[in-house]
Design goal:
The complex is a heterodimer. By secondary structure, chain A is mainly alpha-helical. Helix content of chain A is 73%, strand content 1%. Among the domains of chain A are: 437-657, Leucine-rich Repeat Variant (Alpha Horseshoe), CATH 1.25.10; 806-950. Chain B is globular. The chains are: A mainly alpha, B alpha/beta. The complex binds guanosine-5'-triphosphate and magnesium ion. Chain B: GO terms for molecular function: GTP binding; GTPase activity.
Chain lengths: 977, 226
């Protein structure tokens, strides 16, 4: 301890050790002392020397200090000293104060923060800067050191966290990108820093804001993570807590951080919009009409707030994103609130200007917002439209330049893509609609156009040009405008008056720059007559105009007149390019000859080139807002640069073309037209083919369905045929059975399924018929049975005869048997007769013999018996004969039936054959259809190919389908919207 | 646009699996056939309805490329839901799931709902990962699972909505601490947790706000206006 006291207090006595020596000693202590207390004191001493001996401490102690951070994690006091010391050597106090908003459009009002670095300090400052950089580089040589610092920030102790925050902020200021990179890859690095905003200690929260400002600078990835970590919510909360625009520097810091997060970061802008944070901006602009509180801080805050609004609707954003933000700004009343500020009194000019710029971008290209803006009235008596009030400022020399520019911008944004608004403005100049009793926009613009103030001339000319932009109707309407000049002289057209001023400009004494007036008027004329042949004719109609232009272009004028020459060339070029040859003296051809004679083609083109080569041209081409460092530089209008870009090439070509080439061109045009025709024809063809294709597709579809139908019929028929076959088989079977004489007649009908076709019914009938025949046969058979059995019983001795079958052969046999029976009986009868004869003879002889009487009586009885037997047999034979005859008949009948059945079978067989051929035919037909289908496929493919060859994009049917679907989806979307 | 809840989602998975396409299909009902490599992270949003309640989904579509891994890790902590996507036509993207899951589990809130998605289901002919494999992986790791096609939009709505349903159920069960009111009182650490779970309760609105509550937009699909 004594040693330290010596160092610090003993400076007056004895030889002083140099700073470097002291610091070296302290460093040794820090490195070698085993006592925490010693180390802590040494670091504290280093800290106290770190400002005075910044260089020495930085060079010699850096490593030791970092070591302390690594090893003495448990002692927050020593950590605090080490961090403070590092902060002192790395941070550049002076430098800390001046950084932000280097790209703000208008310089921010000077708040306490902006110190001007005086010239003598410049060298010292430079050295200090170099030192900061050098030490920063040493520190971050090992990325681990940054990670270490991040870990220390998790330490809740104020003595660690606060200097930690400041040190990291300083490091970021010096070597932003590198440290951002390290933080980005360290796990949860950014998220942890976001937690600083939640620190309940305001100092840390506020310095955390500054840290985050540095952290998010120019690094979209970090900006997104910070936004993801609820930064918008937190920041908007803090702004509200701190009193919005009335709040202090913390509000300003929050706003700056918000700007960092949103500027050029479309993802975050989308998140901001989707998070409904636009709505939360509205109350920011509820500034009272009392002129009391417009502190510098409030002006700064509001300025930043307005910038935030503009970031969300910037013309450089994607049109869709801007449009949706514009919409919600109107819906939540933000635009209305801004317009209130616009019309309020006592608003500082600075704020008013930025508010106008903001309103401009909130309404630009948005019809709803533009319509609303047109309806805003100033609270004057009588109330005047805001547009008129603003235009009054634009053509008022006493108003600040930036304000006048802002009004012009506002007016341009009001007219941007707003045909309705353009019409309304032009109408205020037309004889029919002019209202003499009140000041109108048109009057103000005319006044501005012809005032003695060049700035007003320029602004009014450009404003009027915007009322004509891309609007042929208004270009033609404006031709009707006549101006009363001085009493007694005839009125002159607005168009002519503009050229008059151009040519006689020198006669009027003007304030400001002559060039500015002429450039303004020339831009107006170019915009007016371009793409409007009637206006070209009007312009050429005045005999003085062309000579004036050629004179301007051909003259060898000074540097500052070059732009005017270029614009004159452009105007003359437009007169050629958009010429409809209706004026004999000024046809395209004649004008070109004039250029050739008076100016020279090359010269003309060179002069034309002056426009784009002008140093201010590209600046204006960058963005729509008219921003000029000084009034003299107000020369180009953004929209006009677009027109030049569009016309320079075509005019150069048009002028370079000789009349021959022109003719060739005509021819080419003709061929082009022919080509067009051809293309149209082809298109027609394609359309036709499309229709054909469609038709063919339909045909294919219908054929497919036909084919399906036919196939169904075929299947049906096949099944029918199968059934018929079955029936046929059954019948055949049955017939066979019948032929075999078997009399079982089970339900063959049950085989018939419910298919009702004619054939079926027919078949059924046939079957029915057959069945009838069958039963008939059966009854006949049973008859015969009965007969035969009776025969059997009747003729017992002929028992071996037919057993009663109904078979024909049997019958025949029976018949034969009966015949033989009859035969045998006849023989028997013959024998008996002979016997009787013999007996009679013997009896005659016997009467003479013994026993003649008894013998003869016995014989007589015998005879009688035999005679009766014979009689019975004879009748029996008679009956049998009849029976035989009967049976023969029955057989014939059966034979007939058999024939008819056989023919039925034949019929069925032909029927079957017919059906089979039918099937064959159907099959053939189907094959033919398939062939046809294949054919058509082929045709479609070839048609597609032909279409493709014709250059029409032909999609596959699959693709077409999906496209149709997406179309549908789109429609749905629109519906939902 | 009044909402009852706001959920933050992240979409993770290998490059080219179709994360951005899924988001675009969900918010804009469009399909982007060209691989527009995501740089870092992109944001999208849409309103959905669950259980009759308007729920705002804020979705961060992360880059799958390895080089952005450290950036995208920053988004795990604050997310309530994650869609972990692989490509059914590329087995390697399925094989990497374990790494993704470890990463997510390590850096996220433990209650984060993870939906496993096998994307490009329209490319059946080129399938390399069976649906059953996805299901098995999900079952094994306690994830919800779906196969989707950002091209045909099949299951895309369902994937996002089912994840929200799961989160919603967890809220109903009281798993998440989401009390907005006590926000001021809770300590530093708790406050951080509240922010970290990726859920926000919508602005309470007893009487409807005059200008804004022409609320047809609630059902509106797409990252459309406001
Ligand atoms: N067929 C088909 N292609 C898809 C589908 N989803 C995405 N693709 C295609 O896959 C490619 C990659 O899709 P992205 O969404 O850009 O991939 P990513 O996952 O965002 O890739 P990174 O941004 O690099 O992480 C693109 O070409 C898509 O058209 C799908 O469902 N079906
Ligand atoms: Mg992507």
């Amino acid at each position: 301890m004594n040693f330290f006291r010596g160092v610090i207090s003993g400076q007056a006595a004895g030889p002083q050790p140099s700073g470097a020596e002291t610091i070296q000693k302290l460093c040794d202590r820090v490195a070698s002392s085993t006592l925490l207390e010693d180390r802590r004191d040494a670091v504290r001493a280093l800290k106290s020397l770190s400002k005075k001996y910044r260089m020495e401490v930085g060079t010699q102690a850096m490593d030791h200090l970092i070591n302390i951070l690594q090893t003495d994690r448990s002692d927050s006091e020593i950590l605090g000293y080490a961090l403070d010391t590092l902060y002192n050597v790395i941070c550049n106090d002076e430098e800390e104060e001046q950084d932000e908003s280097e790209d703000a459009v208008a310089p921010l009002p000077v708040s306490g923060k902006h110190k001007n670095v005086s010239v003598p300090d410049e060298n010292a400052q430079k050295q200090a800067d170099d030192l900061s950089l050098q030490f920063t580089d040493t520190f971050i040589q090992d990325p681990e050191h940054v990670t270490l610092l991040l870990t220390l920030l998790e330490e809740f102790d104020f003595h660690v966290r606060w200097p930690g925050v400041k040190l990291l902020t300083a490091l970021l200021k010096n070597q932003g990108p590198q440290i951002q990179g390290i933080i980005l890859v360290s796990p949860m690095g950014v998220s942890r820093l976001m937690d600083l905003l939640a620190d309940s200690r305001e100092v840390i929260r506020n310095d955390g804001l500054l840290l985050l400002q540095q952290l998010t600078k120019g690094n979209a990835a970090i900006q997104k993570i910070v936004a993801f970590e609820n930064a918008f919510e937190r920041l908007l909360d803090i702004i509200t807590e701190e009193g919005s625009s009335d709040g202090g520097i913390v509000v300003e810091d929050c706003l700056l951080l918000l700007l960092n997060l949103l500027k050029n970061n479309s993802s975050n802008q989308n998140f901001f919009k989707e998070g409904s944070y636009i709505q939360r901006m509205k109350p920011w602009f509820e500034v009272g009409d009392d002129n009391s509180g417009w502190s510098a801080q409030k002006v700064t805050n509001l300025h930043l707030m307005l910038q935030l609004v503009r970031v969300m609707v910037s013309p450089v954003n994607s049109p869709g994103a801007t449009a949706s933000c514009q919409k919600s700004m109107f819906q939540c009343g933000l635009l209305q609130q801004l317009c209130t500020i616009l019309m309020a009194t006592g608003v500082p000019a600075d704020i008013l200007t930025e508010t106008i710029n903001t309103v401009s971008e909130v309404i630009r290209g948005s019809q709803v917002n533009q319509d609303y803006f047109a309806s805003v009235n100033a609270p004057s008596n009588p109330p005047r439209p805001a547009i008129v009030v603003l235009l009054m400022s634009m053509v008022n020399e006493r108003q600040p330049f930036v304000l006048r520019c802002a009004v012009l911008y506002c007016f341009q944004c009001f007219l941007y893509k707003n045909q309705k608004g353009q019409g309304e403005i032009v109408a205020t100049l037309l004889p029919s609609t002019i209202d003499a009793n009140s000041i109108s926009a048109g009057q103000l613009l005319c006044g501005g156009l012809f005032s003695a103030d060049s700035l007003s001339n320029w602004c009014a000319a450009v404003a009027l040009a915007h009322a004509l932009q891309d609007n042929l109707t208004q270009k033609e309407q404006l031709l009707r405008v006549q101006l009363a000049t001085s009493l007694g002289k005839p009125p002159v057209s607005l168009l002519q008056q503009c050229t008059n001023i151009l040519s006689q400009g020198d006669k009027i004494v003007r304030r400001g720059s002559k060039v500015q007036t002429r450039v303004g008027l020339l831009m107006l004329l170019c915009t007016w007559i371009s793409n409007c042949p009637i206006a070209v004719t009007h312009f050429l109609h005045n005999q003085e105009n062309v000579p004036f232009l050629t004179a301007q272009i051909s003259e060898n004028l000074g540097e500052d007149e070059r732009l005017v020459q270029g614009l004159c060339a452009l105007l003359l070029g437009i007169c050629i390019y958009y010429n409809d040859n209706s004026l004999e003296n000024y046809t395209k051809e004649k004008l070109k000859q004039l250029i050739e004679k008076r100016i020279g083609k090359e010269n003309f083109v060179e002069k034309l080139g002056f426009i784009t080569k002008h140093e201010l041209y590209s600046r204006a081409a960058q963005k729509p807002q008219p921003v000029f460092p000084s009034p003299e530089q107000m020369l180009f209008d953004h929209e006009f640069t677009k027109l030049v870009k569009e016309l320079e090439g075509v005019i150069t070509k048009a002028v370079h073309k000789s009349s021959e080439e022109e003719k060739k061109e005509e021819e080419v045009k003709k061929t082009l037209e022919q080509h067009d025709n051809i293309v149209t024809q082809y298109k027609e063809l394609i359309r036709e083919q499309d229709a054909q294709l469609q038709e063919l597709k339909e045909q294919v579809a219908s054929m497919t369905s036909q084919n399906e139908q036919l196939q169904a019929t075929i299947t049906q028929q096949q099944s029918q045929i199968q059934q018929h076959k079955d029936q046929y088989n059954i019948l055949k079977l049955k017939l066979a059975k019948e032929n075999q004489g078997q009399s079982n007649s089970q339900g063959d009908g049950s085989q018939v399924n419910g298919l009702q076709t004619e054939e079926l019914t027919q078949l059924r009938e046939e079957v029915e018929e057959l069945r009838k025949q069958h039963s008939l046969l059966q009854t006949q058979l049973s008859d015969k049975d009965a007969l035969i059995s009776s025969l059997k019983s009747g003729a017992a001795q002929t028992a071996e005869g037919p057993a009663g079958g109904s078979d024909n052969t049997e019958l025949l046999q029976e018949l034969e048997a009966l015949r033989s029976q009859v035969q045998s009986q006849s023989t028997e009868i013959g024998q008996l007769k002979m016997e009787r004869q013999d007996l009679l003879r013997r009896a005659e002889a016997g009467s003479s013999d013994t026993l003649p009487s008894s013998d003869s009586s016995l014989d007589a009885a015998k005879m009688a018996e035999l005679e009766s037997r014979l009689g019975a047999q004879t009748s029996e034979m008679e009956r049998l004969k009849a029976e035989v005859k009967n049976l023969s008949e029955s057989r014939a009948e059966l034979e007939k039936q058999l024939d008819s059945t056989t023919s039925t079978v034949a019929i069925l067989q032909t029927e079957k054959e017919k059906l089979q051929t039918d099937v064959q035919e159907s099959k053939k037909e189907q094959d033919d259809l398939l062939m046809l289908l294949a054919d058509q496929d082929q045709k479609i493919t070839s048609l597609k190919k032909r279409l493709k060859d014709l250059g029409e994009t032909v999609e596959d049917e699959d693709d077409l389908d999906t496209r149709d679907q997406t179309d549908d989806d789109d429609e749905e979307d629109e519906d939902e919207d | 646009m009044a909402y009852a809840y706001l959920f933050k989602y992240i979409i993770i998975g290998d490059t080219g699996v179709g994360k951005s396409c899924l988001l675009l299909q969900f918010t804009d009902k469009r399909f982007q056939p060209v691989h527009d490599l995501t740089i870092g992270v992109e944001f999208g949003a849409r309103m959905i309805t669950i259980d009759g309640k308007q729920i705002k989904l804020q979705i961060w579509d992360t880059a799958g490329q390895e080089s952005f891994r450290s950036i995208t890790r920053s988004y795990y902590r604050g997310a309530a839901g994650a869609l972990l996507v692989y490509d059914i036509t590329r087995r390697d993207t399925f094989n990497h799931l374990t790494t993704w899951l470890e990463d997510a589990r390590q850096h996220s809130n433990s209650n984060m709902v993870i939906m496993l998605i096998g994307n490009k289901s329209d490319l059946e002919s080129r399938r390399e990962v069976k649906k059953e494999e996805g299901e098995a992986f999900a079952r094994e790791h306690g994830l919800i699972f779906m196969e989707t096609s950002a091209k045909t939009a099949s299951n895309v709505e369902e994937a996002f909505i089912n994840t929200a349903k799961e989160i919603y159920e967890k809220i109903q069960e009281g798993v998440f601490d989401i009390n907005n009111e006590t926000e001021e009182k809770i300590s530093d650490q708790l406050e951080l947790n509240r922010q970290a779970n990726g859920i926000k309760i919508g602005p309470q609105h007893p009487t409807t706000n005059s200008t804004l509550s022409s609320n047809q937009g609630g059902h509106q699909a797409g990252g459309g206006c406001c």
